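F.,

This is the one I mentioned.
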């Protein structure tokens, strides 16, 4: 704007000189001309860069808070690293003790489902893991990106540890180490190969499948099969509606920027919760009377529901505690040996309430409701 004004002044004065037929002050005017064009150029960059970024012509550091459709609905983008670890020793990523590391955040439901698998399959001695700090912070001085940071020392933040493998300050650095031209989000979980110094996979739904089957020569709990052949079709079908309505559904409620998409997401969420409540009135687990992958995937959202999503994501039509079957079911899963160690409510609350200033500008963390998920439940009434 300043540039345009400056050039108008220049043209008027130049006109006056021409009218007077003199070259007096011509150099001063030429200076003004150059300055005006520099100003016009910087002005247009300021306008053009966000426009280009919005339409993905150029890539900027991204986070889930940017994943928005034009109608104001939250739209999650797909994960990028999709290699598969195999029990076949000749594969590129063979299942080996001590070779892989899982970077997680206790706050993140997607990362937590991977950690749950490490714990309940008895893989935590074969596959090491590190949790980042709960609250997003700036990852670079040169841009505004906010993301997951490692603490500077292992005593800074209970539950979180500094990066034992690469000395990275944050998750973003791991992605940049693994790929020089990465342009996606810097998400957890990250399954890291210590040998090749590479990201194997950053998609939790695939990581849990690998943990379920490919490490069975190593796992302490080999017999636990959470995706058995006879249930696969049912698990896939259940995952689909639970992901859309509940797992991702709560994010669609919380990150919506318009009333319509918010209301649509809430409707879908409570239809799915009601459906779960009805199913769990007939059987112990969501796909029958045996624990399956679908239960772990459902649990990670339910355990965060009353503590976070009811308030922070405006999912307040009904609380989990108002659904007797779902509430008791959540306690039942929480009490499976190993599961409770994958839940760190302190990290969960500090992350959500502290990392989304557009939703909670002052970062105040509600004190309640502080539910005891280790209290007795009634799920043993169903045979397993
Ligand atoms: N599809 C991924 C999603 C992972 C994901 O969205 N993680 C979130 C934390 S809950 C994250 O790291 N977000 C970082 C960001 O948005 O910048 C998976 O399931 O593994």
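My design for it:
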């Amino acid at each position: 704007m300043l540039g345009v004004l400056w050039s108008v002044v220049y043209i008027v004065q130049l006109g006056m000189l021409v009218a007077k037929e003199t070259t007096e002050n011509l150099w001063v005017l030429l200076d003004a001309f150059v300055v005006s064009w520099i100003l016009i150029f910087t002005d247009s960059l300021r306008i053009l860069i966000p426009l280009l970024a919005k339409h993905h012509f150029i890539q900027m550091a991204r986070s889930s808070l940017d994943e928005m459709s034009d109608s104001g609905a939250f739209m999650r983008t797909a994960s990028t690293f999709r290699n598969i670890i195999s029990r076949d020793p000749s594969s590129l990523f063979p299942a080996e003790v001590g070779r892989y590391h899982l970077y997680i955040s206790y706050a993140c439901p997607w990362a937590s489902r991977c950690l749950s698998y490490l714990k309940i399959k008895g893989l935590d001695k074969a596959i090491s893991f590190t949790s980042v700090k709960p609250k997003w912070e700036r990852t670079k001085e040169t841009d505004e990106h906010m993301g997951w940071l490692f603490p500077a020392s292992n005593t800074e933040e209970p539950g979180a540890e500094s990066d034992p493998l690469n000395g990275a300050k944050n998750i973003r650095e791991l992605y940049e180490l693994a790929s020089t031209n990465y342009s996606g989000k810097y998400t957890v979980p990250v399954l890291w190969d210590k040998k090749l110094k590479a990201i194997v996979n950053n998609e939790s739904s695939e990581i849990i499948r690998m943990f379920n089957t490919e490490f069975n020569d190593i796992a302490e709990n080999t017999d636990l099969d959470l995706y058995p052949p006879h249930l696969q079709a049912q698990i896939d079908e259940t995952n689909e509606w639970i992901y859309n309505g509940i797992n991702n559904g709560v994010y669609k409620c919380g990150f919506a920027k318009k009333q319509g998409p918010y209301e649509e997401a809430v409707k879908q969420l409570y239809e799915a919760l009601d459906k779960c409540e009805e199913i769990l009135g007939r059987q112990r687990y969501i796909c029958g009377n045996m624990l399956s992958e679908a239960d772990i995937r459902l649990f990670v959202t339910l355990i965060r529901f009353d503590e976070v999503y009811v308030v922070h994501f405006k999912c307040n039509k009904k609380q989990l505690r108002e659904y007797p079957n779902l509430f008791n079911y959540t306690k039942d899963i929480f009490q499976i040996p190993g599961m409770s160690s994958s839940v760190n409510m302190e990290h969960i609350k500090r992350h959500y309430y502290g990392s989304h200033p557009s939703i909670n500008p002052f970062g105040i963390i509600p004190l309640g409701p502080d539910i005891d998920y280790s209290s007795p439940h009634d799920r043993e009434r169903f045979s397993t």
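The longest strand covers residues 100-104.

Talk soon.
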